Structures are given as structure tokens and as C-alpha cells.
Amino acid sequence: MRRLSRVLVVLAVAILLLVVTGAGDYLAGTAVFYARLAKLYTQTPDSKIAMPLENVTKSRIADTWQAPRGAGRKHEGQDIFAPRGTPILSGTKGYIFRVGENSLGGQTVSVIGSGGRIYYYAHLDRYAPGLEVGNRVTTQTVLGYVGTTGNAQGTPPHLHFGVYTLNGAINPLPLLTDRTAPSVTRNKPAGTRPRGRMVSRRI
Ligand SMILES: [Zn+2]
Fold first, then answer.
1. CA of 114 to the centre of ligand 1 (A)
2. Across the chain, what does the average pLDDT equal?
3. Ligand 1 centroid to 161 CA: how many Å?
4. Same-domain check for residues 132 and 194
């Protein structure tokens, strides 16, 4: 009995330490995030991706999938051109998987979605405020803003958008769908209705 009570005291102290240091919250948060990721892997990947930039239509994207990029490198995504500072919306539901800088992509955000697919947004001028790994996102969530960071320095501002399956990169273009006015306005709070839908002028 005495040994059991000693074990309980040690456990209680350990738990207290975790709570006091905040490590308990961190571990609990991490466990929840991994549980969410595990669930995503069981789901079918999205067959449609909403255009990450609101006022750009699919027809305006010049297909550069697998275009040579020097040194044997090929373009593993699509470039979507827009003025610097244009908000970048998540093309899918999911969770923020990574927020960070690398030499090619500059400031980047990766979102993990159904099927464990990774949606990669690069060359960001800046991140959306408060963006953190583990945040749940929808197609209405702003991830950041169009820029020229990484190897896009000196080029017209654009979003580099990549889609990575468990077997590697795939062409995002066939999956991209134009945002239409109803889907954009449906989940938006009043007063933030976007103006000037280019979509409505298409034939
Ligand atoms: Zn690119």
C-alpha cells in the first residue's frame, strides 16, 4: 500500500508540473492535432480546390506545370498572378500544417487536407495575423498575402500553388474551380461582401 501511495504522489507531482509549466496543454494540443491528422488520412482527397485568389479565374492561369526551371528542376505547381497584397484564401478545408520560410518558396504556408494531401502556398508577402500550426481552415480562411519572397524576387507578384499527394506533386490546375459569388458570400460575415465579380462576366 505504501508503495502505491508513493507512486500516486509521484504521478500527482508530475501532473502538477505539466500543468504549471504548460507542457500539459501543449501535449494535449499536440495529441488532438495528431488525432485530426490521422482522421484526414482516412478521408478521400478533395476532387475540387477553390481558387485561392478571389478575383482570378481559372482561365487566367497559364499552365506551367512541369515547365523547366533550370538545373534539371521542373515547376511543381501553378503560378497565379495578382497584385502584391492580394489575400490568399485556403483552397480547401483542413489544418495549418506548416508556416515557414525556405529559399525557393520564401514565406510559405502548408495546409493539410483530406487524404493527407498538402496544399502549398508560396512567395507570400506576409502571413495572415495569428496563423498557427494546427488551426482549422476553410475555403474562407485567409492564409496570407501575395508577394515575391523566395526565388520570386524580381518577378511580378504571384502565388505559387502546389499540391502534394502521398506519392508526390500533382498538377493543381485540373482541380481548381472558380469561386462563384454565392459560395464566397455564403459564409462571410455581413459587410464583407466582395465587389466586382469577374466570374459574372464570363461566357
Ligand atoms: Zn511557381
1. 23
2. 87
3. 7
4. yes
